[in-house]
Amino acid sequence: MTATTTAAGLHLADITLTYPDGISRLTALDHVNLSVPAGTITAVVGPSGSGKSSLLAVAATLVTPDAGRVSIAGTETTGLSRNELTALRRTAIGIVFQQPNLLPSLTAAEQLQLMVHLDGRNPKQARSRALDLLDAVGLADQADRRSHQLSGGQRQRINIARALMNDPAILLIDEPTSALDHERGAAILELIATLTHQRATATVLVTHDRSLLTTVDAVAEVHDGRLLPAGK
């Protein structure tokens, strides 16, 4: 099915998402609207269970909402097949999970190269791009080290670089500083902001730490499945 084209960036329009809860349904997202232009970073904050993870799952096209529209990098996802959504995630969306989950047998560069190998692309080009991204996140000299030889902050930087390997238009980041101290967390947020602006990604950052929000372009707050503008 051919998708309709809308504005670039990430756009969630009137999103409602419910889950079964006994004989009734629990509303995880309640008519949520969110727009993140290319080259900007929006932080999503809120208490546990408020709907932050559900919002990220919908934005990543991992969960289909009950109602509403999702636009990813100019493509509206409504009506796309499972295979088309998989292809869209592979080419247009980078996801940074809370835990890096690096493969212990691979070097830092190989962690990134694996993302391209899965698509069957040129391994020499994959190596070159991996080294460029490691340089971008300040780890050019760690390319041949394995995960157990790296600090927590370094592993998270590799996690971010890995999500950028396919040059995504949308970057979705889940609690990237939860396992780091304040100083390392602040450095990671600065890095995310810099890469967002340099690479013109539309970035959504889910975080619980409001003290690290000075580097973002916008903040939105989730309460009981509803998204409200919030000051920094």
Automatic annotation (TrEMBL):
Entry keyword set: ATP-binding, Nucleotide-binding, Transport
PANTHER family tied to this protein: ABC TRANSPORTER RELATED, IMPORT ATP-BINDING PROTEIN
InterPro entries the record matches: AAA+_ATPase, ABC_transporter-like_ATP-bd, ABC_transporter-like_CS, ABC_transpr_LolD-like, MacB-like_ATP-bd, P-loop_NTPase
Signal peptide range: none
PROSITE patterns per the UniProt record, alphabetical: ABC_TRANSPORTER_1 (PS00211), ABC_TRANSPORTER_2 (PS50893)
Organism: Kribbella sancticallisti
Molecular-function annotations in GO: ATP binding
Annotated ranges, domain ABC transporter: 10-232
TM regions (residue ranges): none
Protein name: ABC transporter ATP-binding protein
Pfam families per UniProt: ABC_tran (PF00005)
